[in-house]
């Protein structure tokens, strides 16, 4: 059989020599790559493409979920003076309304209002726009760590009221609350709980005090 | 091989998922998905506080129960532009503002900001202020609270991605003066205030969106005396040339009157409403804007590409109808002759590998031939006694040549060596000829330029759905495609089921080759390149048995499409050749490559677009378009059926063919592409035969019981 095909080729050579183009480019099966190198290369390219596609889809989902609809704080002069008159009411509400819509704001929104409320509004003009205060409330879900840290540091007033309240509630269910926030604390509940719960409790506890609005907001 | 399997299905599916995501994203930022164009009729305003209805246009409702209405001080004009940024008009507006050192406020929608982030960046850089105008401009009074939150957060996300800032300013869609607030829109305004936003309505509405003329725009925008004012204009949503022209006069005129053009917080003496975004939020915004950009670019390119392909495909349909009409007219004229009648005896080659079910029918059908023939059955090492069956028939002029299994090309070459005559007919071991088939098939050899002839293969088992689909495909392929190729002189394939060759042509191109899995396509191309004509003989009918299961169909088509790709690649040099080879290379190869190998690969995209259109887009239009395309195909198919005098009843399954069969075909093609690119090896996959096909009216006693219709083995 091999001989015959050679004969064929001789024949063509005799017949129309110039017109037989180099159609024997592929001696042996077309496309087949015995070494497997091409397959490996394309597999690699394939993985890159696949990852790019998957990455695209994931990026899109991540960008779409968990948005934040709050506005950064803006202080309009002339307004603040008005607000100063009703200082006791304004600060609380200015924060609390954020709570009912986004329930995740509960913890953070409640805390700053009783402790830093009046101070915060007064302070803001000096700190240009007062971004720090609002940044906390603007990313409530993710920043719970910073949220819980700040009141402990800044809210000296709040800390004094809180421990008293928490001691009474301690034996009951608050131990669990403390546990969810920080796992270590649950081991020895008595000591750390007051400091811990001071960040957790205000929404519920200060109801007795001036923080009524904050408490309502949290519910 | 097993390791490669997941990838060849994973990657295409992921590509489709990404494409669908891009399409949906495009629909989302083009307000095709989730858009709500309803506008609510006004209601009474008894619950709106009077100080709001009578007060200034800037509402600060951040303190609940204590909303305030602020006004812009005298000699201050705050220009506000809604609905942008627009790629055409916003740059022009920005240019005018820059020219007169004016600052303004742009209330951007999230969709437009996502699509044109560079313009938002430019606004911020040039000292203008950005306010939110929701993501895709719904009437908020009709929306739920969570939708309002979503509109705000998506708008902020787009803004963060475009310019790296968040804003505290807001203007609700479809709003005008604060005096127009009513009992439905006021609660929304209050809620927006509770989220920390300052809502800005306007004092003077230019109504430029109605395009009332430059004069009217200026008149409506101008406040009385030296009063301060927030002016409402639009930089998007249509032709804004009047707005731009009005600015050209309004800005210098009002400056001369002692006004200053400030943005809102400048006018109110407040710090900027912008707050820089950092960290994860910034990256989220950037990722969003990047994703939108990618989707815009990709889907635009695809739309253009698919439109071009669509035009080409329809052009091909038209050409096919035209040329096949011409071809049929030509060969059906009463006096039409290829040349002197061919009466010399011919050799019929029947390569057979394990064809015990069919071989007897095949050979007996040849015995009925009204043309003198010599039959050579080449048994390619069958293990089921195919050769013995033929031997036992004791038929005259039938020879059996046995060889060890070496593949179909080698079997044919073996047959060519044993053939006594100069015209060689080739058929498959599962095909049945009519008595006139051979005679009709060889008549074109009366023309000495003809090197090979394609017959008309017909599907015998057309009563099942899968058989009917292939029947439609065959009738169209032979009556439209092959006639067109005949006229254009670039027939890509002589079907293995029924074809005839001049021995001289076969020998000049070196006989059959096993370089490809489609030796019939390979040899046809080679004969073309050698300068022979290849023609179609419509009356040379051969009845073949089409695959009856999806799996068999899959392997048959896999071999065909992969083999065609191999043959095209093997003969690719023809494109730069001169003479007949070059002609085939520049007409035939591009035709086959585009319409059989390249465009069908993009068919899934068409289906994705279709699906998208039905779900999100203009559903009725999409469905109408689909039926339109179907109608065109039906017309072509009906014409092909008419040419072949086939019963139209089988066309009933045409709509379903478009929904199921086509998809199978492009998955096959895709797999062929992957195999070709990666250099894998395909083994010959033989079909299982049931042996029921025979020419109608020929040897009726040979018909086998219907029990045996099922695939054997």
UniProtKB/TrEMBL annotation, chain A:
Stretches assigned to coiled coil: none
Stretches with biased composition (Low complexity): 138-152, 159-171, 204-219
Keywords carried by this UniProt record: Membrane, Transmembrane, Transmembrane helix
Biased composition annotated in UniProt, kind: Gly residues: 172-182
Sequence segments annotated as region (Disordered): 1-32, 76-219
Transmembrane annotation, as ranges: 45-66
Start-end of Basic and acidic residues biased regions: 1-10
Protein name stated in the entry: Uncharacterized protein
From TrEMBL, chain B:
GO biological process, one term: carbohydrate metabolic process
Gene3D superfamilies given in the database record: Glycoside hydrolase/deacetylase (3.20.20.370), Spore Coat Polysaccharide Biosynthesis Protein SpsA, Chain A (3.90.550.10)
Record Pfam families: Glyco_tranf_2_3, Polysacc_deac_1
Keyword field contains Membrane: yes
GO molecular function: glycosyltransferase activity; hydrolase activity, acting on carbon-nitrogen (but not peptide) bonds
Keywords: Glycosyltransferase, Membrane, Transferase, Transmembrane, Transmembrane helix
InterPro entries from the UniProt entry: Glyco_hydro/deAcase_b/a-brl, NODB_dom, Nucleotide-diphossugar_trans
Domain NodB homology: from-to ranges: 75-262
Transmembrane segments: 301-325, 591-617, 623-643
Homology family: Belongs to the glycosyltransferase 2 family.
Protein name as catalogued: Glycosyltransferase
Organism: Streptomyces pacificus
């Amino acid at each position: 059989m091999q001989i015959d095909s050679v004969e064929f080729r001789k024949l063509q050579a005799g017949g129309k020599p110039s017109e037989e183009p180099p159609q024997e480019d592929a001696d042996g099966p077309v496309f087949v790559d015995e070494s497997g190198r091409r397959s490996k290369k394309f597999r690699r390219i394939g993985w890159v493409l696949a990852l790019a596609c998957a990455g695209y889809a994931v990026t899109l989902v991540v960008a779409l979920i968990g948005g934040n609809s709050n506005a950064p704080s803006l202080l309009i002069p002339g307004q603040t003076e008005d607000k100063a008159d009703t200082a006791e009411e304004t600060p609380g509400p200015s924060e609390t309304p954020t709570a009912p819509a986004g329930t995740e704001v509960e913890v953070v929104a409640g805390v700053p209002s009783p402790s830093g409320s009046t101070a915060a509004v007064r302070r803001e003009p000096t700190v240009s726009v007062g971004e720090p205060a609002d940044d906390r409330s603007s990313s409530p879900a993710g920043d719970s760590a910073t949220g819980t840290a700040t009141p402990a540091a800044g809210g000296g007033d709040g800390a004094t009221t809180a421990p008293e309240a928490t001691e009474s509630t301690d034996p009951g269910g608050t131990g669990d609350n403390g546990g969810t926030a920080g796992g270590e604390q649950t081991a020895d509940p008595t000591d750390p709980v007051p400091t811990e719960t001071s960040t957790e409790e205000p929404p519920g506890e200060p109801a007795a005090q001036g923080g009524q609005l904050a408490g309502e907001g949290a519910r | 091989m097993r390791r490669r399997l997941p990838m060849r299905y994973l990657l295409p599916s992921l590509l489709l998922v990404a494409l669908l995501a891009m399409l949906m994203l495009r629909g989302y930022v083009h307000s095709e998905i989730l858009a709500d164009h309803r506008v609510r009729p006004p209601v009474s305003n008894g619950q709106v506080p009077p100080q709001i209805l009578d007060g200034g246009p800037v509402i600060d409702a951040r303190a609940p129960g204590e909303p305030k209405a602020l006004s812009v001080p005298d000699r201050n004009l705050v220009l506000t532009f809604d609905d942008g940024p627009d790629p055409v008009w916003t740059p022009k507006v920005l240019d005018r503002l820059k020219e007169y050192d004016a600052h303004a406020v742009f209330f951007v929608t999230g969709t437009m900001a996502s699509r044109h982030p560079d313009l938002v960046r430019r606004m911020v850089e040039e000292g203008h202020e950005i306010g939110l105008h929701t993501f895709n401009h719904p009437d908020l009074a009709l929306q739920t609270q969570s939708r309002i939150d979503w509109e705000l957060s998506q708008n902020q996300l787009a803004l963060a991605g475009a310019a790296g800032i968040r804003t505290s300013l807001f203007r609700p869609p479809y709003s005008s003066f604060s005096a127009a607030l009513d009992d439905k829109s006021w609660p929304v305004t209050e809620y927006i205030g509770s989220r920390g936003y300052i809502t800005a309505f306007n004092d003077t509405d230019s109504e430029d969106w109605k395009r009332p003329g430059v004069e009217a725009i200026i008149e409506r925008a101008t406040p009385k005396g030296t009063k301060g004012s927030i002016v409402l204009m639009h930089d998007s949503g249509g032709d804004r040339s009047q707005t731009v022209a009005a600015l050209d006069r309004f800005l210098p005129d009002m400056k001369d009157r002692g006004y200053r053009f400030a943005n809102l917080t400048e006018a109110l003496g407040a710090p900027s409403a912008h707050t820089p975004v950092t960290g994860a939020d910034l990256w989220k915004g950037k990722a969003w804007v990047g994703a939108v950009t990618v989707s815009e670019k990709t889907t635009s390119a695809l739309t253009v590409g698919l439109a071009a392909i669509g035009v080409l495909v329809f052009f091909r349909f038209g050409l096919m109808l035209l040329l096949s009409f011409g071809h049929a007219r030509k060969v059906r004229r009463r006096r039409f002759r290829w040349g002197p009648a061919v009466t010399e005896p011919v050799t019929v080659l029947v390569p057979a590998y394990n064809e015990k079910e069919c071989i007897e029918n095949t050979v007996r059908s040849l015995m009925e031939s009204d043309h003198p023939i010599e039959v050579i059955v080449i048994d390619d090492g069958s293990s089921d006694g195919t050769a013995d069956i033929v031997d036992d028939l004791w038929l005259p002029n039938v020879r059996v040549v046995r060889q060890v299994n070496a593949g179909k090309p080698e079997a044919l070459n073996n047959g060519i060596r044993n053939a006594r005559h100069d015209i060689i007919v080739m058929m498959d071991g599962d095909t049945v000829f009519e008595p006139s088939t051979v005679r009709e098939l060889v008549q074109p050899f009366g023309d000495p330029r003809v090197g090979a002839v394609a017959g008309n293969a017909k599907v015998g088992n057309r009563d099942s759905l899968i058989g009917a689909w292939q029947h439609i495909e065959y009738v169209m392929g032979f009556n439209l495609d092959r006639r067109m190729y005949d006229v254009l002189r670039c027939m890509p394939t002589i079907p293995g089921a029924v074809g005839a060759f001049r021995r001289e042509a076969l020998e000049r191109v070196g006989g059959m080759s096993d370089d490809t899995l489609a030796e019939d396509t390979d040899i046809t191309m080679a004969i073309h390149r050698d300068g022979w004509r290849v023609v179609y003989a419509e009356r040379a009918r051969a009845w073949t048995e089409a695959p009856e299961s999806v799996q068999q169909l899959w392997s048959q088509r896999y071999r065909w499409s992969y083999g065609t790709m191999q043959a095209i690649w093997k003969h690719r040099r023809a494109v730069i050749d001169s003479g007949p080879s070059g002609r085939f290379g520049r007409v035939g190869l591009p035709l086959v490559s585009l319409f059989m190998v390249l465009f069908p690969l993009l068919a899934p995209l068409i289906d994705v677009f279709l699906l998208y259109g039905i779900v999100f887009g203009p559903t009725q239009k999409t469905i109408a378009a689909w039926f339109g395309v179907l109608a065109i195909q039906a017309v072509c198919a009906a014409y092909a059926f008419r040419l072949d005098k086939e019963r139209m009843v089988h066309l009933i399954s045409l709509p379903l063919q478009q929904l199921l069969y086509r998809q199978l075909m492009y998955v096959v093609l895709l797999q062929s592409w992957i195999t070709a690119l990666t250099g894998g090896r395909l083994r010959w996959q033989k079909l299982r035969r049931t042996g029921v096909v025979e020419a109608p009216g020929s040897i009726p006693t040979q018909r086998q019981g219907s029990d045996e219709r099922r695939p054997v083995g």
